[in-house]
């Protein structure tokens, strides 16, 4: 307990004091020392500290008087402490008037404005004292100037009371005359230089002519009959020393909340014109805070923007971040379109001061709403502003969000000027974009789909667009790293070139070729609208959407008709079935329409029999366009003879279609010596039967060779053999072709049903 008390009483009071106490001697003025200080808890809160160690010092009395007096024109008391016979008084940041005028470099008119405002404030302080029957008695050396240029009264150690009655005759020490005479001497010193030897008013000297009348009234003995309120009122009228744009502007800002709406807008118009008359200290610490305050707590709106940015140039970077940037964040969130447009038009003035964190976290969301605004002026201003802000946007906002908005404006905005400026903006910010975003799509299927889309929509482009825009866009893809993309690009270029050649040879067909460019109506792309050369692209686009590649899976084989077949299968065959079932489709496109769970030849036949009819078109390119591989007839794998004493009859060869895909890997060709089993022909005797077998084999091999021919994708659409450029003969009589396909499917189902029935009969015979 003793140690706690000892530490408590041994604490240094200076270390516990809220304000910093300077270690140096400071500046000596009027019997005391003073220096700069600040609040320890908030280093940005600046102050001035006065101290004195003299026993005869009146600093403690001044502190007591200042603590009890609160007025806008009296120096503000903050704190005080006495340590080791030294008394410290802390006030708002200030300096003596004489020091202030020596530090400032003011020209003639500007000095008159500053003095008129300062004298007006001091006379208001004297008015406050005199109405309370108090006389200051030491005005000449008790005026201090704050950081905002306000003159304030201090030094109340000599304050006395006075009464204007017959029992108390007027004297130099008990009436307003004393304060007014000292104020007159101070005015003379302001314009003619400070001199300690002056004890009474002298001739005006270099004092402005406009101030002579007021100076004479305060300097003569008749000042005892005047009141400060009367002098203020007289000089605030037209022609008075206090009636000027400097004083009027500062008074309007202080009374802004009391002014009518119709007075505020004209005021800001005049303020923009009069900002140059204010010294830097008054502009930064008096006018600017008032402007920000009028926006935060008033209805100043966009009128403050020009003064705000103009005065912001006077601030250091840390001050700008502390005082201007928070106001800018609020301005960007304003729903007023005029405010937002004017703010964006001045973006170059404050963009360098916005940090990347503030821009991305607090401003970009509100800024981006301008891209979707119904006002063209807001959209255009937002686009232009991006040039100044792009370098500070993070990856997501720049390469994802901003690109999304710019693409929308560039392709769909109704105003050509906005589309043009969007393109210019993209050119200016291209260096800031991520390489993966400013180059072509890195995903090969995306580039391939773009080529297909161009080809399938060829009828919507004029011949000039094809020559000037489409072909130059396709040309780089002929050197693509992916061969599939290159192949599609060459096909598209050939088709477009043939279209141009046709128009060149037969100019009379140009209106027909461009008939769909400006055609109205909404319809899906179909073969009736697309010429023969572009059918491959239309089939591919209409067949499916891209789907990401799923991870390979080994799933148990099941029959479409149920799970009985899989339950009855021997367990020893499970590994082989899983191996056969593993999907070979790695491009992510072929898994949209593949039946699952087909594990054997019999189950495949059952699936075909039970599956609903599939409308197949021999010209259908909706499946397999992305692989660009030769289409071959599927050959079933024949089980070894030892596996079953009664081998199952193989399914005859079927033509591959795009409507259905096997989930099996590419089967291996059967042994050469088992050709009879492959073709499903039972052995017979020699002679005529052998000749028939030879003829049958030759016929089957000829058909197989015809079916394994590689398709180039261009010449196998039509069956008529017509070589015309855009003839649609291959697609004529669509109903007839669909009927023919349905008939073929029906014949296949009947054939499979017969084979299944024969297998069932054979099994029953064996059982018997």
TrEMBL record:
Coiled-coil residue windows: none
Compositional bias ranges of the Polar residues kind: 759-768
Region (Disordered) location: 544-768
Compositionally biased region (Basic and acidic residues): 646-656, 734-757
Low complexity bias: start-end ranges: 565-574, 693-714
Signal peptide: none
Top-rank taxon: Eukaryota
InterPro entries in UniProt: ARM-like, ARM-type_fold, CIK-Related_Protein, Kinase-like_dom_sf
Protein name, per record: N-terminal kinase-like protein (inferred by orthology to a human protein)
Lineage, highest ranks first: Eukaryota, Metazoa, Ecdysozoa, Nematoda, Chromadorea
């Amino acid at each position: 307990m003793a140690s706690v008390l000892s530490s408590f009483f041994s604490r240094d009071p200076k270390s516990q004091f809220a304000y910093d106490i300077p270690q140096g001697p400071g500046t000596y003025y009027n019997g005391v020392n003073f220096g700069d200080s600040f609040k320890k808890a908030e280093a940005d809160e600046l102050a001035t500290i006065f101290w004195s160690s003299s026993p005869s010092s009146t600093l403690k009395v001044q502190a007591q008087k200042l603590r009890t007096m609160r007025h806008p024109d009296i120096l503000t008391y903050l704190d005080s402490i006495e340590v080791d016979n030294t008394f410290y008084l802390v006030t708002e940041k200030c300096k003596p008037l004489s020091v202030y005028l020596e530090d400032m470099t003011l020209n003639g008119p500007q000095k008159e404005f500053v003095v008129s405002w300062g004298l007006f404030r001091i006379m208001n302080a004297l008015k406050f004292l005199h109405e309370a029957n108090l006389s200051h008695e030491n005005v000449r050396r008790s005026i201090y100037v704050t950081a905002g240029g306000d003159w304030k009264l201090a030094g109340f150690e000599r304050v006395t009371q006075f009464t204007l009655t017959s029992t108390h005759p007027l004297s130099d020490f008990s009436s307003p005359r004393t304060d007014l005479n000292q104020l007159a001497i101070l005015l003379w010193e302001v314009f003619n230089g400070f001199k300690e030897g002056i004890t009474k008013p002298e001739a005006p000297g270099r004092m402005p002519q406009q101030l002579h009348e007021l100076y004479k009234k305060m300097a003569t003995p008749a000042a005892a009959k005047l009141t400060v309120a009367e002098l203020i009122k007289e000089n605030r009228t037209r022609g008075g020393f206090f009636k000027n744009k400097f004083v009027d502007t500062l008074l309007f800002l202080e009374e802004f909340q009391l002014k009518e709406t119709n007075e505020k807008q004209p005021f800001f118009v005049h303020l923009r014109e009069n900002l140059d008359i204010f010294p830097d200290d008054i502009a930064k610490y008096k006018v600017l805070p008032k402007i920000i305050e009028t926006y935060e707590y008033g209805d100043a709106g966009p009128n403050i923007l020009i003064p705000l940015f103009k005065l912001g140039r006077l601030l250091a970077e840390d001050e700008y971040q502390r005082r201007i940037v928070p106001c800018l964040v609020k301005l960007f969130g304003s729903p007023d379109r005029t405010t937002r447009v004017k703010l964006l038009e001045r973006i170059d003035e404050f963009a360098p001061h916005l940090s990347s964190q503030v821009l991305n976290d607090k401003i970009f969301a509100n800024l981006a709403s301008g891209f979707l605004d119904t006002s063209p002026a807001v959209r255009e201003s937002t686009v232009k502003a991006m040039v100044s802000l792009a370098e500070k946007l993070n990856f997501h906002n720049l390469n994802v969000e901003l690109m999304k908005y710019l693409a929308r404006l560039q392709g769909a905005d109704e105003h050509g000027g906005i589309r043009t400026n969007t393109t210019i903006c993209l050119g200016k910010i291209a260096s800031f974009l991520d390489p993966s975003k400013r180059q072509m799509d890195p995903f090969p299927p995306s580039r391939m789909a773009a080529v297909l889309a161009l080809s399938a929509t060829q009828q919507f482009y004029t011949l000039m667009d094809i020559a000037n825009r489409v072909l130059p866009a396709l040309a780089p893809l002929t050197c693509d790293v992916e061969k599939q993309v290159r192949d599609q690009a060459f096909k598209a270029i050939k088709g477009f070139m043939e279209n141009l050649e046709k128009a060149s040879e037969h100019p009379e067909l140009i209106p027909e070729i461009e008939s769909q460019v400006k055609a109205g109506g909404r319809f899906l792309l179909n073969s009736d609208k697309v010429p023969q050369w572009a059918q491959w692209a239309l089939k591919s686009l209409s067949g499916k959407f891209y789907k990401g590649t799923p991870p390979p899976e080994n799933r148990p084989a099941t029959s479409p008709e149920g799970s009985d077949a899989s339950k009855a299968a021997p367990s020893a065959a499970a590994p082989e079935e899983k191996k056969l079932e593993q999907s070979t489709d790695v491009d992510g496109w072929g898994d949209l329409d593949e039946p699952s769970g087909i594990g054997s030849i019999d189950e495949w036949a059952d699936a075909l029999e039970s599956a609903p009819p599939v409308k197949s078109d021999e010209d259908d390119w909706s499946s397999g366009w992305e692989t660009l591989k030769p289409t071959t007839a599927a050959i079933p794998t024949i089980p070894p003879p030892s596996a079953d004493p009664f081998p199952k009859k193989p399914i005859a060869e079927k033509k591959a279609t795009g409507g259905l895909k096997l989930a099996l890997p590419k089967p291996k060709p059967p042994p050469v010596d088992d050709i009879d089993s492959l073709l499903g022909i039972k052995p017979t005797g020699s002679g005529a039967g052998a000749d028939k077998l030879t003829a049958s084999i030759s016929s089957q091999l000829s058909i197989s060779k015809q079916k394994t021919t590689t398709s180039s994708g261009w010449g196998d659409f039509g069956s008529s053999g017509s070589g015309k450029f855009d003839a649609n003969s291959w697609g004529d009589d669509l109903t007839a072709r669909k009927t023919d396909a349905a008939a073929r499917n029906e014949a296949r189902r009947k054939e499979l049903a017969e084979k299944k029935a024969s297998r069932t009969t054979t099994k029953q015979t064996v059982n018997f």
